[in-house]
Amino acid sequence: MKTLSLAGRTVPAIGIGTWHMGDRPELRDQEIAAIRAGVQAGARVIDTAEMYGSGRSERLVGAAIRPLDRQQLFLISKVLPENASRERMAASLEASLQRLGTDYLDLYLYHWRGTVPLAETVAELERLQSTGKIKAWGVSNFDRDDLEELWQLPGGPHVQANEDLYHLGSRGIDYAVLPWQREHQVPLIAYSPVAQGDSWGQHLTTNPVVRKLAQRHQVSVYQLLLAWVIRDPQVLAIPQTSSVAHMRQNLAALSLELRPEELAALDEQFPRPTHKEPLDVI
Q1: Is the sign of the CA dihedral 244, 245, 246, 247 positive or negative?
Q2: How far apart are CA 226 and CA 237, in angstroms?
Q3: Going by C-beta distance under 8 Å and a sequence separation of 6 or more, which residues neighbour residue 206?
Q4: Could you say which of 31, 54, 98, 178 is the most buried, measured as most Cβ atoms within 10 Å of its Cβ?
Q5: Tell me, what's the pLDDT at 239?
Q6: What is the set of active-site residues?
Q7: CA separation for the pair 86, 73 (Å, rounded)
């Protein structure tokens, strides 16, 4: 099973994303069951945010983990840019903790950059870490220049992760962001690692090479796409699903190893970038 080191903990390289979960009351029981099935199948990281459903996702996660061993889990949430100030972040964090039913987060991410000076946000993240309410902090939707600016700030090198969009059809960060993160030993959390199916006209699941390799390994195309994302030992994938069966399939991809020639065949279909591209976000 593939693992990586995240904020000082060794965790499986596939976690549980929760964007859009908690939005539909009729799916509540199914979504709770899916999260619990993921943990039972080996997941430890659960990623959420105060933005997701205006707190509904955090409440759903809180309900799902209530009977579970909190110490075995690695909980991530995120603070909105408008709440990432000295005056507002502590209250924002407290609200997230209450919705999740926990007294600490393993990792607290600055969701994306806003108008609050980055130095102020970092200083407040450092202060909150000193209280024990967050064990570590990181960032999200940061590009190479954002990371370089962060690194120059007091406390900036304490960043423990950057969460960006990354999948076989969106490889822009392969050019500048991922090399920087490898050099500075900052893990990447890849959101939407299977491209939400076939969004943006990528046709990942219908690509003949993807389908051929999936058939060769006797796995689904989604499992193959996840295995591609976590081929890098410093990348954590956080796919989202409300299906118990799909959740278990996602976690099974932890044991899928793609051979060099298979990776080369995928590179030919979906080439790595040869120049800097704008950061892809959704």
Answers
A1: positive
A2: 7
A3: 198
A4: 31
A5: 97
A6: 52
A7: 28
What domains sit in the chain, N to C, each tagged with a CATH number? 3-269 (3.20.20.100)
CA atoms within 13 A of residue 44's CA, in its CB half-sphere: 19
Distance CA 219, CA 250 (A): 10
- Residue 275, token pair as written in the block: 């120049």
Task: Classify burial at 37, counting beta carbons within 10 Å of its beta carbon; exposed 0-12, middle 13-18, buried 19 or more.
Answer: buried
Structure tokens at 147: 């990371």
How would DSSP label each residue in the chain?
--EEEETTEEEESB-EE-TTTTS-GGGHHHHHHHHHHHHHTT--EEE--STGGGGHHHHHHHHHHTTS-GGG-EEEEEE-GGG-STTTHHHHHHHHHHHHT-S-BSEEEE-S--SS-HHHHHHHHHHHHHHTSBS-EEEES--HHHHHHHHTSTTGGG---EEEE-BTTB-GGGTTHHHHHHHTT-PEEEESTTTTTTGGG--TTT-HHHHHHHHHHT--HHHHHHHHHTTSTTEEEE---S-HHHHHHHHHGGG----HHHHHHHHHHSPPPSS--PPP--
Angle, nearest 10°, between helix axes 208-217 and 221-229?
Answer: 100
Q: Give residue-wise pLDDT tens across range 199-253.
A: 555 689 999 999 999 999 999 999 999 999 999 999 999 999 999 999 999 999 9
Greatest CA separation found in the chain?
Answer: 55
* 111 labeled part of a ligand binding site: yes
CA count, 13 A, side-chain hemisphere, 270: 23
